[in-house]
Each structure stands twice: as C-alpha cells, then as structure tokens.
Specification:
eight-stranded parallel beta barrel, two-stranded antiparallel ribbon, TIM Barrel
Amino acid sequence: MPTIAYQLYCSRNWPLEDTLKMLKAAGYSAVEGYGALFANPGELVDLLKANDMAMPSGHFGLDMVEGDPDQTIKLAKDCGVKKVFVPFLMPDQRPDDREGWEAFAKRLAEAGKPIRDAGLAYGWHNHDFELADLGGITPLDLIAEAGVDLELDLGWVKRGGQSPVAWIDKYASRISAVHVKDIAPEGEATDEGGWADVGHGTMDWGSIKPVLDAAGITHYVLEHDNPNDHERFATRSLATVKGWN
C-alpha cells in the first residue's frame, strides 16, 4: 500500500486545524507541508500530533535550503519530514536558455548536499515551465541529470504537453514521489483553475498507475491547486486512489 498524502497547499484558504480534522475524518494519515506552514513549527507539530497525522515530505523554498540548510534540516526533522522538495522558481528567476538551466541544475544539486548529508531525501517539484524545449532537452531533464531527485507532478507534466507515462519510464530511478492531480475537461472548472478531483478529470490513470507500480513508486501526494471545496476534493480523490489497489 503506497503512502497517500494530502498537499496542504490545497487548503491554504481554510484554517489548518480545521483542515487536519477534516482530513483525519476523511481517512488520511499523511500530509505534505509547504513553506508558509513552517513559520510556526511548534504549532504545526502539535496539530499534526493531535490529529495522528504524519508529514513525510515538505516543500521548502530554495532560498531557505540554500541560505540556511541547518534551519531547513531542523524544521524538517522537527516535523517528521523525510523528503525535502524545492517547489518553484518565480518567473523573473527562471533561466531562459540551456546554459542558464544547466547552471541552475548544478546549483540546485549543490544546495541539496547538506540535506542529503543529514540523512534526508532531496529533490525538485516541477510545474510546466521546466518542460520547455531547449533543443531536444528540457530543464527538467537537466535537473534530473544533475543528480537531483524528482517529485514528479503528473498534472503539470500533462499540462506541459508531455506524457506522464513517458516521464515516469524515463526517470523511474530518480522519482522519489509523485503529485497525483487531475485536469478538468477543456472549458470546465474554470473557477478552479481547470483542475479536477482525482479520477473525475481527463488524466488516464488506467495507463499511469501500472507504470507507477512498475517503477516502484509508493509515495503519492494528492493535490488540486485551487479547489473551491477542499473536503469534496479530499474525499473524492482519496476514494479514487484507494480504489486502485
């Protein structure tokens, strides 16, 4: 049985305490944290314990990972995080050519050395901008080839015009976790950014799930970038994923 976690960013518009109670009632036992939650780690740890909730992975900004690795490691360990993922680059920070992305990939790998030395897994969480064509190769290829593990966001891979199955096959040994996301049919769910509850959109899970199994990937993080009803998303998506096994 894989680890099935809920990315708490989905519920950023609801109080954390209410969200964790809702998730516990829905049947979750794990969540994934993100930057803003780590501002008050004591409260976060207390709420996780009160709701019997593990946090096996978390998103930490590159500025923190690179600028204060000791604090990153302390925060991660305090919260029980075993996998540290860097999640994003603002548009004005993104390289615009292969040379720039190669340099960034090396920088990203270097920033992860203290994290790995502390016994934690370390990787990059993609969106779609890392799938731009740099002449037969993408920024995400360069990141993986630099030795950085991936938390492969399957929804963003699809939105980037790529095949989730092909990417899982290509980098199976580098994928530490996947974000399980679904995409609404064209023109639907516009108030939710075009995303859908897992199993209620257009992603071909019948093709994707066997490839995840073959690759030995057992850490799923369920996510919807902008649900207008997080309880609906949480319950329907968990039912879908549990139905795969």
